[in-house]
Each structure stands twice: as C-alpha cells, then as structure tokens.
Design brief:
By secondary structure, the chain is mostly helical. It is 74% helix and 0% strand. It is built from six helices and no strands. Helix 1 crosses helix 4, helix 4 packs antiparallel against helix 5 and helix 5 packs antiparallel against helix 6.
C-alpha cells in the first residue's frame, strides 16, 4: 500500500494522471471535431451553420447527461457570477467556426496545431497573471521555450 502523499489516492489511481488522460482524450475529441464540423459545413452551407448544429447536438447531449446525473444548477450562485463567466460558450463558438472554416483550407493537422499554439500563448499570459482565478504561474524561460517548440511544430507541420 502506498503512503498517502501528493498524487496518491486511496484506490491507487493517481488523480493527476487520470486528469491528464482525460484532458488528452478531450484534446483528441477537438481534433475529431474539426473535420467533422468541416464536413457538416459542406452540407449546411457555412461554418456558422455547422457550429450551430454542433452546439445543438452538444446541448442535447449535455442535457441528457445532466438528467442522468441529476445535476441541478445553483441559480443563486450563478446570479453572483461576473459577466465574463457567462461568455465561455462564445469562445467555444469561435473555436468551432474557426475549425470548420480552417480544416478545408489548411488541413486538420495545421488547423489544430495553430489552435494549440494560440491556446498556449493565451494560456501562458493567463497563468502569468492568475487571470479568472486560475493559479498564478509566472512566465519563465522554460515555459516560453515550450510554447516556442509548439510554434516550431506549426512551422514543421506547414512546411514538411
């Protein structure tokens, strides 16, 4: 039996590892989402229409999961949220429209690589300032080098 400590849990599953696997799988889902929505775009006539269908299906799926899990929103807490907490779906809509539009023009790999580069650049800034209540993690040479490697990856995906 492992001693209780950082990363250890009672059932032997490392919560950090489980979180990392879940996030990698979610990243894979976004890679699948881009060409799927690009295909939808060809049928419905625009990336905005494709995003609308995507969000309608996603909303229905989330509604079903919420019913199964019997989750109920805390409306009192929701009313107290700052304005920016309400616009997360807007960012998702921008992402889905851009992916549906970008895949036919750039390909899946380049579209996703560019999106990851953008996510990392903004993420680095948000972490540096601890924005939106996230843990603060100052920009360092090592973190900038990591983002630079992704940007180099964008160039490699584009040129080779």
């Amino acid at each position: 039996m492992r001693a209780a400590g950082k990363g250890a849990s009672h059932d032997g599953m490392n919560p950090m590892l489980l979180s990392m696997i879940a996030v990698v799988l979610a990243g894979g889902a976004t890679a699948l989402q881009a060409p799927t929505n690009a295909k939808m775009m060809t049928a419905v006539g625009s990336p905005v229409n494709a995003a609308f269908v995507s969000f309608a299906v996603g909303t229905a799926a989330l509604g079903i999961v919420a019913m199964i899990l019997q989750t109920k929103p805390d409306l009192t807490a929701a009313r107290g949220l700052p304005w920016y907490a309400w616009i997360g779906g807007l960012y998702g809509a921008i992402f889905v429209v851009a992916a549906a539009w970008g895949v036919p023009r750039l390909g899946v790999a380049l579209t996703i690589t560019l999106m990851v580069a953008g996510q990392l650049l903004i993420g680095l800034i948000l972490d540096h300032f601890g924005a939106f209540g996230s843990p603060q993690s100052p920009i360092s040479l090592g973190r900038m080098a990591g983002v630079a490697l992704v940007v180099a990856g964008v160039l490699m995906v584009r040129r080779f």
